[in-house]
């Protein structure tokens, strides 16, 4: 009986040896201190979607523009008009996402204007001018002269920005907003009521820190004679170093009220009377002149164009730019609004 089990025990020992030794033999060649390669860990960040604004079809709505120089009315398709506005209002070398944001504001403005039918002072048939009274607009022939040899590249870039946002507008509670914009902030945008007296919930002061770094228009200095200063403001400058006192500031850090020898003037009034670039100003007297320094360029309400470009340079999308400068808004198709308008004709 013992002899019968001996071969079986031997076989069991051999099998156990093989089971134990084979993994060791397989691992042994790779157990040295140096390795030819390792399993590394490098988690890839998801690619940020740049075109967050989807274009949508829109009815073929014509826009009639009163041309200030020729005194004629030029009629063209809405999207072609938007191209002419973006080209006239924003530098073509700005980032594409900033140009898209400008396209959204331009389209929103003209849709609002078409719906409101607010055309006082315009000749019959015109809905807008080509000036800052509404939006600056340039046609292709004018842009060819402005852009010169860069026309093809620049108009291609602007056309892409408009095409990528086709039919889209900025809304608040489902209605097109007053999509105001300006060149350069003083570091903040302004509440609409500080400029126009009437509040709009989406036009509130927000920070715009990019302007100071990238806009050559951030600071400006002008010199005006004391006599001219007194005449334009209707004040008398007393002898001494002090010329008035700022008694209040707006939410956007601009001058609210200045008291000059008992006469109180708003920052807006002073800006307009003296032709200043901004209502954020300071001044000092030097002999028979007054040196005025301003920060920012424009009225300050809505989207800062240089701020928009700053956001785009940091990777911001057109939608992010728009929703930063206009609070609580949405981006939606203008199709239904325009379709309703054309159906009534």
Q: Which secondary structure elements does this structure contain, and how are they paired or packed?
A:
Layout lengths: L1 H26 L34 E6 L4 E6 H12 L6 H21 L11 E2 L10 H8 L3 H14 L3 E5 L2 E2 L4 E2 L9 H5 L14 H4 L4 E7 H8 L11 E5 L5 E6 L2 E4 H8 L6 E6 L2 E7 L7 E2 H9 L4 H8 L4 E4 L1 H9 L2
Parallel strand pairs: 1-3, 6-13
Antiparallel strand pairs: 1-2, 4-5, 4-14, 7-12, 8-9, 9-10, 11-12
Helix pairs in contact: 2-3, 2-5, 3-5, 3-10, 3-11
- Roughly how many Å apart are the termini? 112 Å
Radius of gyration: 33 Å
Mean pLDDT: 87
Tally of distinct domains: 2
Q: Would you write up a description of this structure?
A:
This protein has twelve helices and 14 strands. The radius of gyration is 33 Å and the shape is globular. Residues 1-5, 22-32 and 35-44 have low confidence and may be disordered. It has a three-stranded mixed β-sheet. A three-stranded antiparallel β-sheet has the order 5-4-14. With 345 residues, it is of the alpha+beta class. It is 38% helix and 19% strand. Keywords: Membrane, Transmembrane, Transmembrane helix. The chain crosses the membrane at residues 9-30.
